[in-house]
Amino acid sequence: MMIRVAIVDDKPNNRRVITDKLGRDDRFMVAFEARDGEDFLLRMKDLAGTEYPHVVLMDLEMPHVDGVTAIATASSLYPSVSFVVLTIFDDDEKIFKAIRAGACGYLLKDESGKVITDMLINLRESGAGPISPSIAYKILQMVQQPELVKSEKEKQENIFLLSDREKEILQLLSEGLEYKEIGSRIFISPNTVKKHCISIYQKLHVSGKAQALRIAYTKGLI
Amino acid sequence: MMIRVAIVDDKPNNRRVITDKLGRDDRFMVAFEARDGEDFLLRMKDLAGTEYPHVVLMDLEMPHVDGVTAIATASSLYPSVSFVVLTIFDDDEKIFKAIRAGACGYLLKDESGKVITDMLINLRESGAGPISPSIAYKILQMVQQPELVKSEKEKQENIFLLSDREKEILQLLSEGLEYKEIGSRIFISPNTVKKHCISIYQKLHVSGKAQALRIAYTKGLI
DNA sequence: TGAAGGATACTCCATTTGGATAGTTTTACA
DNA sequence: TGTAAAACTATCCAAATGGAGTATCCTTCA
Asked: pLDDT, tens digit, for every residue of A95-110?
């Protein structure tokens, strides 16, 4: 059975390129094209359940109703339809919003025709949504650090007026090295390492390794 | 420059297969092999920073110390090293745990040699971790169902199987208190505090306060 | 030119820590 | 109710740590 595909993109040229890529493969047929999210939702309303596309290739930035909104609406109304983002945008926020809206795949437009068709066939056979490798890695990072997006915690590296050497020692200290290990790593005497450590503790107004490391971690010194 | 790869798998035959796959490509060299997580952590300790592998291909189910624990420990201790899971397991929980532990990629063993080498080259060039397509889709679903991720989020804190008492001690240790101070704070003997600390170090597979605190901070244990 | 601060190196000393070993009590669970 | 796990206590020893003091060499800057 042929896979019915709908294409939603505001650029006629983009739609034509995708249609051509799929047209060379007789496992696909383009059910319809839409120029934006609103157009897509209206066309879906006119279809009977048996005419729904299996897959919708959806651009993101479009007039009237954008891709994320269209996916959020349509994935609820038509749960049997798979929504795959096909766009040039690869920033974290768009990826995140599209997935949360209900996209089951995310492809970049620079993927080759064969990669796209292969992944769509696989979607049909195994249910696994198609995802471009670079997008997959960004999604992995979202799982890795859920509250990451508030990046850019200002490194106040110099409020304690540590010298370069002292910052270097502090870094090595945080890696769990002992005086003698640090010494041999940067070619100075363990005694000197200790002297640096004591200076660091004084500048940080702490007494001991653990407290110094606490400040280092929480203030972003390392 | 060649990419140094370490291979961690308890089956000698698996290690040989991977070594062979990489051996045909002169962009790679196998830095060392290890038979389990414990073996891997011990071998890493003996290396100088310049000898660290760029990438570690890690199986998950292994005796002594499993892959997730090894990644959790080593990704804190050696932040410059990339950890890629290479396994036959594709169940959600293993994937989730490995990613949260610090894996930057997840490959299935049935990937061809070329796919693996291509993705490792790409990791080197773009920093994007290699992810098998079917795994990528499962990760996407994790983002889609945040409550699932959230309920398992607490497990992150327990991948090292610290007891409540040990977590309490670790918390106090991070505040820079000494054994006797911790003891009087929670009304136990300093000797007991020390015993707990040593147990913590064993469970975290580290030797010393600084390394334990590093893992505690970077893995969100405190 | 001379003061100030950084980096280096050393000594002496008391304290803290890591590691091993060997127990007892308490708690949890099957 | 028995057993396993966790929590607690204790002691010994070698190593690492922190604290203080002293000293030389170098660069920077007023």
From this structure: 999 999 999 999 999 9
